Amino acid sequence: MRPFTYTRAKDATSASQSLANNPNARFLAGGTNLLDLMKEDVERPTSLVDIAELGLSDVKSITSGSNKGGISLGGLGKNTDAANHPLVRQHYPLLTQAILAGASGQIRNMATNGGNLMQRTRCPYFYEVAMPCNKRTPETGCGAKEGINRMHAIFGWSEQCVAVYPSDMAVALAALDAVIHVRNASGQERSIPIADFHRLPGNQPDRDTNLMHGELITSIELPQNRFAEKSYYLKVRDRASYAFALVSVAAALETEGNIIKKARIAMGGVAHKPWRALKAEQALIGKEATEANFRAAANAEMADAKPLSHNAFKVELGNRSIVLALQMALNGGKA
Amino acid sequence: MDATNKVTGTPISRIDGIAKVTGKAPYSMDHPVKNAAHAILFKSTVAAGTIREIDSTAAEKAPGVLAVITHKNAPKLNTKGGLRGGALLQSPDIEFYGQHIGIVVAETFEQARYASRLINVTYDKKEAKIDFEKVASQARLPKDKERADAKRGDVQSALTQATYKVEEVYETPIEHHHPLEPHAAIAEWNGDSVTLYSSAQIVNGAQGAAAATLNLKPEQVRIVSPYIGGGFGSKGGQWANLALAAVAAKHINRPVKLALTRQQMVNSVGMRQHNRQKISLAATSDGKLTALSHETVTHGAIENEFVEPCGDCSKIMYDTPNSLITYRVVPMNLIIPTYTRGPGKSTGSFAMESAIDELAYKLKMDPIAFRLKNEPARDPSNGKPWSSRTTVQCLSEGAKAFGWDKRKAEPRQNEQGNYWIGYGVSAGTYPAHQRPTSAVVKLKRTGDTVTATVELAAADLGTGTYTILTQTAADALGLSVQNVTVKIGDSNLPPAAGSVGSVGAASYANAVNDACEKITQELLSKSGKQFFVRPTASQLMRSEKLTEFQTRVDSKAPESAEEYSAHSFNANFAEVAVNKSTGMIRVNRFLAVTGAGKILNPKTARSQIIGGNVWGIGMALTEESVVDPRWGNFVTRSFADYHVPANLDIGHLDAIFINETDEHVNTLGVKGIGEVGIVGVAAAVANAVFNATGKRVRELPITPDKVL
Ligand SMILES: Cc1cc2nc3c(=O)[nH]c(=O)nc-3n(C[C@H](O)[C@H](O)[C@H](O)COP(=O)(O)OP(=O)(O)OC[C@H]3O[C@@H](n4cnc5c(N)ncnc54)[C@H](O)[C@@H]3O)c2cc1C
């Protein structure tokens, strides 16, 4: 690991200012991703600003504004606490399931909600500095596209980068239309809908998100919804826990009788960002909640997939996973 | 207090358990050596070629750096000294990606690692052989005589004539041992002698190889290895890092700590090789095998070969008039493979026991009945009688305990919600040997209390060596376990076999028993008395009023053991649930039934067996090391990518031991249990997956995409 300075921020604004003054400074939250990347020489910050003691960790009901009736998760709250908070368990069980499907108990105890959103890809070419990787070092090429790419993207990839974004939590957030609140060094706040938070790789795969340097994630808002009864997070992986998704699906339904009024489907493990399956959602609105309709919806989405040399299975798996996740959601979300 | 009841064969808890869970048991890097500097290795990023230049200017100026050592300034070492894998910084030649090409030594680990990243290496690259698919056709007969073609009868014509046959290819990928404790050493010189604190499965082997490599005499090297954080074969033979720690310490004239990182482990300390195994079986319509062949193609390193014996189980498991076992190997620019738990047997049994299941299915025979029908009366490979063989009991008792009768013969008949349920069975074996081992027993008496110390350069991989030797000595001397101290893991102690090849328990325990027997005899003759009931050594110490007495024994297997074919045997039973939509597999239940002679401690033995089962389940479902065929690097370098089973992957595990008395194998009747626990496991799981889904996966691991 390269030498760096370490400071403990006292308040959010000064934390952001420390970053604004140094393009190579980083926030340190739980450290479960950043420190690993530093040990591997992938991330090379010259300065770490520890934000662990800023507060910003509560889960609260939102009592005013556009998301009134929803809840707000502190940007620095721990993943474990978010997953287990009674408000989350009761109103957003999809989020609980997604968080608990990720990492391990120990890691979730350290990991923060903001850090989770900002975690970087697990692409092995990104992780090994001797390998080419446009995300890590622009203009060096992509090791994965013609290499080992079983774990990689089938949607939205570019010639520059085929990596997938690894978070489970964010997939549920995408399905729940979460809004990310951030604050910069001048104390200005803005909110970014989750759909616009992460980026597709395009020609700038080194940029994972639309967060500006120095902007601090202060909270994540979840609008009120009626999905709690019928939602499910399905994660398909190479082992039962502690593995990243081959494909994951966050599915949520609101029905009237057997007719689908609203549907939300987001996928993980398939793209450089949580992949909102809008075509599948469209195909479901106003339809009966039947297996045949679920299949048609899944097909509508997966028809656009562009698999790489080793991951063609993700198309069929994605298809089946959407159907299964919808069925589980319809059955009340019990595993 | 003298013991009243025998403790051998009882499930006492590990003697070293408390020390381990309280952090008092020192592993390699924990030994309190003063003033130690820290070293880190740096590695090649090409798979073949020569180093043109190593620019270490910036690194040498980095804070805390004490030295940078490369082939330019490394001392001359003996590359044939017995350390595996080359990479001793003796030349600019590169033979695999990740070969060690230098050492950075600094005041702290972080400084060393930082400086290592400032080093700039340029290469003249050569074309490398890193794609097994491309080079497999060039494989040739191994140099090792033990891997020569073994032929009986005429397999080919038996196959041609048969109506019932299986001819299939089974693939097992590269796997890594990945013990939790990475390979590490502290080197401390004292004049011309060096002490290496480093975990070793064969203490004397490590001593010999390190000494020869460093151009020293064995007595100039001391290996201290009281505890080992796992090895699984990767700490059997030793690797360059051991000698390089000594080189670094000599270079800066200070003790040095050198540990590999997890990521460095993949190309530093061997691996299980990729095996492509073709199995051909033929049988009569009533299920009598008429032909069996097992042909393995694999890879070695550029200079040296290692070929794990995939055909070993196939050689002895079934009675057939025609059989053929062959090996072919091709050099590749990868680190040399090495012994990995159940070498050849675990991988070979996946192929053979899957094929047996496939043929039983074609014959519409129960796979257990099929196996029983082909049970050999003698060892088919050499005609020797079995010292004892428990395959029949393992299969029959296991079938009963597991509820095998509930298995549906046809796949996709057992459905539970969104899951297919399947049952699978396999049989396995592992050879039993006792290797030469010396031991010293020292008795001490204070008042009425007699205590014993047992000393030998044995190894405890976390498997229970301390415990079973304490039990053995306590019984043989007439003491309680509290009054016995076992000292192992130090090359200053009497030389011992290693904890490899499942010879540890048999070699060590028989040596300790022989030493205790000998000391009792010596005390008896010293007393000059005749006894109706033979007193224990402890009683003799008191009756003869001795305060100290000791003896040493050099123990080896009874000569008559050679007349028999001696093996542990097992049967494995797996129940899997396969998700119909996603292909995710869960092993609901696993039962291993083992015949391994006398079980010295059922508790530690059970841990050995279920530990082997877990790795076997990993082999079946999750573990795979993947090489990029362009560069030759492993893309699976950490536990995030190299998937060992997690708790949630493992359902209910059960281990049953057959009550077996083997009078021929050795004095105590002990066979090995360290490896038999992994043998056949992957096949039992794969057979269960077939029984569940009708899908026969012949390429491990069976990940969800392969069963969709
Ligand atoms: C072995 C392993 C397995 C894992 N498996 C999974 C899995 O299956 N699914 C899954 O979803 N995750 C998984 N994870 C990832 C884990 O969820 C993340 O590491 C964790 O969420 C990161 O949170 P952190 O607080 O530790 O972030 P840090 O490591 O502290 O920070 C990560 C990044 O976010 C930035 N950052 C942190 N907080 C803020 C903020 N408030 N505002 C702006 N920027 C910020 C940091 O500067 C840094 O760049 C796994 C991790 C490991 C090590």
TrEMBL record, chain A:
GO terms for molecular function: FAD binding; oxidoreductase activity. Keywords: FAD, Flavoprotein. SMART domains: CO_deh_flav_C. SUPFAM superfamilies: CO dehydrogenase flavoprotein C-terminal domain-like, FAD-binding/transporter-associated domain-like. It comes from the Bacteria. Residues 1-227 form the FAD-binding PCMH-type domain. Signal peptide: none annotated. InterPro entries: CO_DH_flav_C (IPR005107), CO_DH_flav_C_dom_sf (IPR036683), Diverse_Substr_Oxidored (IPR051312), FAD-bd_PCMH (IPR016166), FAD-bd_PCMH-like_sf (IPR036318), FAD-bd_PCMH_sub1 (IPR016167), FAD-bd_PCMH_sub2 (IPR016169), Mopterin_DH_FAD-bd (IPR002346). PANTHER family: OXIDOREDUCTASE, XANTHINE DEHYDROGENASE SUBUNIT C-RELATED. This is Xanthine dehydrogenase family protein subunit M. It comes from Spirosoma terrae.
From TrEMBL, chain B:
The keyword Oxidoreductase applies. Keywords: Molybdenum, Oxidoreductase. It comes from the Bacteria. InterPro entries: Ald_Oxase/Xan_DH_a/b, Ald_Oxase/Xan_DH_a/b_sf, Ald_Oxase/xanthine_DH-like, AldOxase/xan_DH_MoCoBD1, AldOxase/xan_DH_MoCoBD2, AldOxase/xan_DH_Mopterin-bd_sf. Signal peptide: none annotated. The keyword Oxidoreductase applies. GO terms for molecular function: iron ion binding; oxidoreductase activity. Residues 22-127 form the Aldehyde oxidase/xanthine dehydrogenase a/b hammerhead domain. It holds the Pfam family MoCoBD_1. SMART domains: Ald_Xan_dh_C (SM01008). This is Xanthine dehydrogenase family protein molybdopterin-binding subunit. It comes from Spirosoma terrae.
